Amino acid sequence: MRKPPEGRLDRKVVTSWRLGELVTTVLLGGFALLIVYAVAVQTAGNAGPALLITLACVVIYGVVFVGIVPAIRYARFRFSVNADEVDIMRGIIVHKRTIIPLVRVQHVDTRQGPIMRAFKLSSVTIATAAGMHEIPGLPLEQADSLRDKVAEFARIAKEGM
Amino acid sequence: MVRPSDKTSGGVLERQHPHKVVVVKWALSSLIPMIVAVCAVAFQSMQSLVERLAALTGLQNIGSIILVVALLAVAVFVILLGCYYLSYRNFWWEVADDELHVYRGVISKHQAHISFHRIHSIDMDAKVLDRILGIVTLKVQTAGSSAPEAVLSGLSLADAERLRSYIFARKDANVATPGQPVPGMAASGTAGTATAVEAPGKPMTGSVPSASAARAMDANQQVGEVSDAFRGAFGGTSATQQPPDYEYRLSMKEVILAAITGRGVAIAFFGMIVAIISGVTSLPFADAIVEGATKAGSAASGAFGASFAIVVVLFVLGCFLLLWALAVVASVLNYGGFVVRRRGDRVETEYGLLQHHFNGVTLERMQSVTVKRGWLRRLFGYASVIVSTVSDGGGDSSDNQGVNSQGVVVHPFIRYADVDAFLTAALPGFDYGEVAYQRLPPIARRRALNRFSLIPLAIIAVVLIAAAIFFGTVGYVAMQVATVVCLVAVVVILLALGIPAAFLWYSHAGYSWNDRMVFLQHGAFTIEETRIPRRRVQWVRSKENPFQRLRGLATISVATAAGGSAARNTLRDVPASRAVDLLDWACPRPQGDVADEPLAQAVEMVY
Predict the structure, then answer these.
(1) What is the model's pTM?
(2) Looking at chain A, which residue has its C-alpha nearest residue B577?
(3) Looking at beta carbons, which residues of chain A come within 8 Å of B541?
(4) How many Å apart are CA B467 and CA B507, to the nearest integer?
(5) What pLDDT, in 10s, does the model give residues B555-598?
(6) ipTM value of the model?
(7) Residues 6+ apart with CB under 8 A from B577
(8) Burial (Cβ within 10 Å: 0-12, 13-18, ≥19) of residue B127
């Protein structure tokens, strides 16, 4: 029986995800409120109840995706890298476990969005001929060294084949 | 046509254009959709169109209006000819020693330089118009890209086969004796033969008699003969430099049987059901039922009803047979003249009575093999063999019939018992005798029943009942009747097809793996057996939703570089422990290899 991988993401990634989701919620929620307001004023004349319902929806969305989901996503995400394979375990409702043999790794990148940059975090993406796999939210140095190690292991593994 | 500046010591750079007739083809293939669109609009409002044209031109009789329209079409055609002549002038390729240069573009220019060793396959397609004009479209496929790297349209068949054989001869020559050029394009008598460049170190016809050169020359002469014999159509033997290691031609009888037992029945059946449901739920019919119900009891209406029912049944049966016949004819036209052959590591398929296709795939590009058996074929013990290649799911899937999300059909109709012998001969490396599949645990059957029948039934029933109640409260009786009829139809279909489908799916589902390959089998009415060599596995995933977790089950997916057909490489409801075993299997690690130990210690790193 295979043990769950032991690598964890940086704890700060939860806050960065929260921030990202907050921005999305505020933007989408504001947009939704505007539209509902415009439509309600046009049709009913009184926008109050419709706005309240929309606001409630936005708040529920915010509580779920800002308050709850990032913490669970962090808790569920595990990964490990060794000389043979990359092992990624993730998923909140549907649990997924992916094994990527290092021989199949085509290239490894680190990437960073503006929010990640503010938190000094970086994501490692591992590309195979059948798509990308991402390990999000590692401290910069760890992401860089992980990227270099995966690239190195992949090279060694390919030579060994 | 040879530009002096292009003469390099490395090879013959001779600018080659497509055949001039391709301008006509391009213009026609732009014009025909336009005409179709105009016709569609015209039939919609023929009357007003004629009136408007008459008002516009001052012409009165229909004849002169048609004349004006025809003249307009001719004018558009001439303009198109002019435009496409420009793109024809700006589209050429050069065949160098070990590279193909393709230049195209009128305003924005494109250049592609493809070295021969990157070329995996060269496919040829000829649509109906191409075959009338006697030209083909050549698609150059390379490793690492899913769309064709270069598309050379409008070569004459002779030129296409010559180019193909030249490139493969060069490829082989480079592998065998690097630096030994072989005579190619110039040797085979295009317009460029006389102006061939006699640069030092670049021997032309007869200058250097090497074995590979002689072989390539033979091949080229053979090309000439074949092309002369088959003008405008594909030749009997293909013009490659080596004879096939394996060849199978489908007889016309097999093609017809394949078409009859193919997907046509299912297509016709579902077409019929859709027609029935849309007919029954259409308002006039529902109104008629309501009317009939109010008049019920009169003997006359009963007799009328009976004859009406017979007419309806006959009509439905007729529709079904017509749809089936059409599907069979289409399939025969598509797969007529099917040939599969293997030369070394290239597997070529050629098929099509009207549109002709020529596909070449190297064994390297093949990711998985699927043996597919529809229920009708299973009765006769026949199957079809489909290969997923790297180019699957690429952007070109719409215009390349052989290569789509379904994969490349390498044998459309084969006796199931002969499949393994066929794989040994045609697709070496994919053969593996009898496979002992492991069955799924019984709980998977109940979950299949839910998935195929009960859950969709519940959802659709709730929606339709809500709709019926809504129509009832609004008082729209005809619509309510239509909804109820629809509900009954859905319930009948989901119970009559869904329940057997679930049991069949469970009885067919199975998995197995060994150190070479993983085998997955599933499908309810059509059984698909997919085998994926471990060398082709890009990653493996085990997935559990909450219900599966409760039962200790998991869904396994095996990804290959052939994207598109992922559903085939997935199996639901495998025991979770076996799913974990498959994860362990994914990594081809050398067992107990001493040399690996220091490395393993050095790199043992866990975050």
Answers:
(1) 0.73
(2) A1
(3) 96-99
(4) 37
(5) 999 988 876 546 668 899 999 999 999 998 887 655 444 344 43
(6) 0.88
(7) A1, B552
(8) buried
